[in-house]
Amino acid sequence: MRVLETVRGPADLKKLSPQELTDLAAEIRDVLVETVSRTGGHLGPNLGMVEITLAMHRVFDSPRDRLIYDTGHQTYVHKLLTGRAPKFDSLRQEGGLSGYPSQAESEHDIVENSHASTSLSYADGLAKAYRIRKEDRHVVALIGDGGLTGGMAWEALNNIAAEKDLKLVIIVNDNGRSYSPTVGGLATHLTALRTNPRYEKILDLIKKNLGRTPYVGAPMYEVLHGVKKGLKDMLAPQGMFEDLGLKYVGPVDGHDRQAMEDALSKAKAFGGPVIVHAVTQKGFGYAAAEQDEEDNFHQMRPANKPRGWTDVFAEELVRIGHRRPDVVAITAAMMNPTGINQFAQVFPDRTFDVGIAEQHAVTSAAGLAMGGMHPVVGLYATFLNRAFDQLLLDVALHKCGVTFVLDRAGVTGDDGPSHNGMWDMSIVQLVPGLRLAAPRDSTRLIELLNEAIDVSDAPTVVRYAKGEVFPDIDPIDKVGGLDVLHRSGTDVLLVGIGSMAATAMDVADRLQAQGIGVTVVDPRWVKPVDPKLIELAPQFKLVVTIEDNGRAGGCGVMIAQALRDHNITTPVRDFGIPQQFLDHAKRPAVLQQIGLTGQQIARDVIEAIAQIQGTEIDEPAAGRPGGA
Ligand SMILES: Cc1ncc(C[n+]2csc(CCOP(=O)(O)OP(=O)(O)O)c2C)c(N)n1
């Protein structure tokens, strides 16, 4: 029987012998490699977390003590040790285990948000609550060196340091990498420590010499301790933490379970906030991951990836870079995933990886624009949420020409609620002067990216979906800025936004088959609303908008408002993502669940037209959660 099968919860771990724990670590690595190769997900980070997680669960008493994982992508080992091993096969599958912590799954999970750099703030609040309620519980926050590059983490540290009696242990899992190597001054500090052999050698020497000086042992120790501290300050980052008033333990080999347990026990006994600095290797124990240069298998990559939206953007940005020496690129620790890496290879001096620091990225872009450059900020759509105020007041108020390229917009699916890009088109609607483009295919992405970068006196946003780029849909006509994609009548004006233009074409076919006349347009630029769209609308019985964004405050709502403002009474039906946190599943399954497919939209539109015409038709009246 494998040791893993005997572990039904953390209590079982405490009974295991050192040998059994070593065997368990090997078994966990086998399960990780075998499962994640099949399901996809975060392999490298979890391979690096095996011993740390074992130590966390042996030293602390979850769920009484609270374990918080920053971002949460490194919790597969935690899942395996907290009763979820039998279901681990279902990782990231519809109805199966989430790829992140989940309160619904386990009492051992508390924070589910997968946006980085939040763990220390949650931990600060939880520990303060337990102190006020006089509950004797520890809070443990695990944060990577990547997570630690986010400003929020430092805001939290600043506050935690002032609370001398908080029972709070911060484990820094320092593997030197986010996706790519972690950047910035802090990362340089951590690397200096990790890679400097002098430090441990000198400490060894001190220890040995101490043993040989019997009478002066104690005073000598003080002197040498001073020396040690001075040395550490020179080489290590704890000077920085200690200056803040935080106790520092480390560096500890994060793959030495016993050493980790010793360090955590010491930290637990201290009774105030402590930082335990664990040094690990991403992908540890699996040669293919350890040696992978791109990202140590941070996330499993499919073997034959079809040409995606990111590839089209990446190649075009390089072409633009040659033509426009003022164009610079900024990424927030997502060099490869956003495609900025291709620009970086050609223009390293014009590329800035700022760490997981979206807020800084955006205001730094404003500064670059004020200094005569045209920044292109590459982000996942969901992470723009982080930098709304910076976009609004630092960029837009100052009329800075900054282009935001939002990848993974719309339903992304597998990574669950916090990774869906379903807020961007709503929040950017609030920004005066900002122009928003949603390309429907690769030709339009190239066109719109160029048009966006030509705007020098306002922010522009270009947003597109995750994964494979859709086949081109060529326009049959152009009306103002609108592309007309289909024209068979004037019953319904279908406005297909971005990747939903393909769905609009599907709807059009279905409506036409029912004898309903349809025109499909793609506005390309969706903010501001194109005046030609306002001119066209009164010619139709119904305007239908389809977008891959939350319905609240989205493009459909803005189009309806523009029509009202012009006293146009044509009814509008807006289809988009319902304002819900969507459980993880594949994108097509999520779209089906929320009613955002050609079939479901066509059914609703047929009903709406029937109502408008005052006639009843034989269509099943099923629910339409995504419909208007
Ligand atoms: C606000 C935010 N921006 C970007 C990301 C994307 N992201 C997920 S994991 C990760 C790297 C995390 O690095 P680190 O904290 O060191 O953890 P590791 O994977 O190395 O264990 C990034 C950038 C995110 N989750 N949240």
TrEMBL record:
Subunit structure of this chain's protein: Homodimer.
Stretches assigned to the Transketolase-like pyrimidine-binding domain: 307-472
Segments traversing the membrane: none
Enzymatic reactions: D-glyceraldehyde 3-phosphate + pyruvate + H(+) = 1-deoxy-D-xylulose 5-phosphate + CO2
A single Gene Ontology CC term: cytosol
InterPro entries attached to this UniProt entry: Dxylulose-5-P_synthase (IPR005477), THDP-binding (IPR029061), Transketo_C/PFOR_II (IPR009014), Transketolase-like_Pyr-bd (IPR005475), Transketolase_BS (IPR020826), Transketolase_C (IPR033248), Transketolase_CS (IPR049557)
Binding site for Mg(2+): D145, N175
Protein family according to the UniProt entry: Belongs to the transketolase family. DXPS subfamily.
Cofactor note as given: Binds 1 thiamine pyrophosphate per subunit.
Species the sequence originates in: Kribbella antibiotica
Protein name per its UniProtKB record: 1-deoxy-D-xylulose-5-phosphate synthase
